[in-house]
Amino acid sequence: MEKKEFSTPDLPFALGVICVCAAGLGYQLFLLLPVLVVCRFINRKFLFFTLCGIAAGVFSLAFHLHLKQERLEQLPAKGTFLNLVCQSCDSTVSFVPGLPQASSFTANVLKIDGRNVTGNIKILIHAGKSGIPVRYSEKFSVSGGFSPVEEDNHFGKYLESRNLHGTLQAEKIKSLSPPGGFIYHLSRLRDNLLERTLHGISSDTVKIIISTMFFGVSGGFDNTMKQTFLNTGTLHLFSISGMHLAAIAALLLIPARLLPRRIRYWVVAALCICYALSTGANPPVMRALIVICFWCAGKALLFYKDSANLLALTAAVLLLVSPELIGNIGAQFSFFITAILILTAGQIAYYRAETGVFMSAIPRNPLTFKWQKKEKFKWFLISSVILCSAAFAGGIGISAANLLPVLPGSVFINLILMFCVPLLFLLIGVRVILGEFFPSAIIEYIFGLLEDFCFEGSQFILPAGLAVSHVCETVIFCVALLFACGSSRRGLRYLAVGTAAGLLLLWLIRPCFLAPRVIFISSDSEKTPVIAIIEPAENLGFFVNASCFEMCDTAADFMRRAGIFRSEAVLFTQSKNSFSSLCRLTAAVPPSRIRLPDAEGGLLLRYLAENRLKNVVSGGREREFVKIFKEKSFCRLEYFNPGSKLSFRMEWNDTSAGRIVSINGAPARFMPWGNRQEILYYEFR
Predict the structure, then answer these.
(1) Quick check: 245 and 286 in contact, CB under 8 A?
(2) Could you tell me the pTM of the whole model?
(3) 3-state secondary structure of 521
């Protein structure tokens, strides 16, 4: 058997870097041995460059761990009140009139209580109380409560992947020096263009969509808007990504044709760099920027580099600079789906070339041209459907592993938007150039249609319930997809397709065999417990209470791990609850209805209505599987599902030392009061 030779080291080098960043510096490095065996089976050159990637990854990981440890030693414990001197490093903050201010921004820490330190934090602010965000590169003093990163929740993992070391709930912000620098002037130019684009537009929703979708401005998207676009699988449109940068590059190439060949590509690359820096330079944008810069350099200097090798080189560069990106969901989606699209496009081009060979032998005449036109249109439609389906398949494993909803119906909506979004980019470009001379009513009407289309689509798309037991299943699924799209051997391709399909079937049927479970989450005496009850076989789930963000996140993760992404109801035991966390819970696992305690006042109902939470009822007038009784010294919860014959009784009694929880009359656990969560899992056999 002839072994394939690799002309460039990009792919094996990137493979080594990715494996090291995924495994870390612990005992899991031994898991790389099978990878090295496979590399040796390919050829020695592939093995050598893979080892080079592993060595570079180990060095980079050790260096970044050393820096992280130094920074963590400088940071105080949770809940400490600090006085900081910082410098803003968030270019997505905008000050355009009419747009809502961002509720948070990132900054570099320069001093803590007069002591020089280094680190990056996210500053959380409240309009009217803490002030407004500061401009990029502006130095300022801020005081507030500090919380270091906790990696046991989604928000902590997000902060860690962005190389942030904690959050600060700001109490007071005071500017120390004016902003300046190249990126600051870029963001000012972006704000001027955005203000020109939004002038005359009256709809606040359309303003937010345009500013987020095309200019990368943070702030404005509330939970309802996020949930609408998340339920249709179109939320990726509203975060500047590689697709946006590619569209910008394509539009810039049109007028750049007026310039000499050697110059036009350097101009396009420079403008793309400016756009990336002014919109936040997140990992997907940097991935696309590196690829576009290499492509422009290749065109200008007359050299060629394969797309797959270019993507691999980009991944290696970004991971060596920031190894934490291996855990960033956005970066995972960006790189893996792009790789799937490149390999799938190659297969489509191969089959299209095979079917079109005979046409080159036919004499040219009007009938031939008409035939060729039909063939081009046919392959255009076929390619669009296949590429959109491949992108969806590429996201299944990552979504399931990260407890995100998998939306099969989103393929259809994204297929339609695939043709519309480039036109929207062109429309905004015309609006930026013409300003007020381009009618604002047209902009409002078209983007209103986009919002209505996504909202109506969200009502019909149901998430698929997938349950992944181990990350190894996801790795095998993703590797199988790569071979299914990229292998030139038919047998290997069929084997890879069968493996991926088998794992997907396993994830689909696994929730049906999971036993009913309940989770009881408690913390301090001031907060009511949060309870989640699930029956995966019935696709049924209930939440009881929504006391705080952390407990709601834990309960939502518990439900999504069982493949349930829409709950039946959120119920409350008493009026003493932090209802603000209910908005976060309903965004994670939307309920069909919310039931409040008896005689709940109109103020709370008005608060829920302002946050667009629907199907809110007061009291126990509706028939429920779950009944809640509030006694003098304890609470009792009774559950009975006539369809599955599951019934149980849970009681919890609050004492001076903690909570005593009983299930079906038998003591289950004692939970002492404290700041950290105390969790009880119970499975019904």
Answers:
(1) no
(2) 0.81
(3) strand
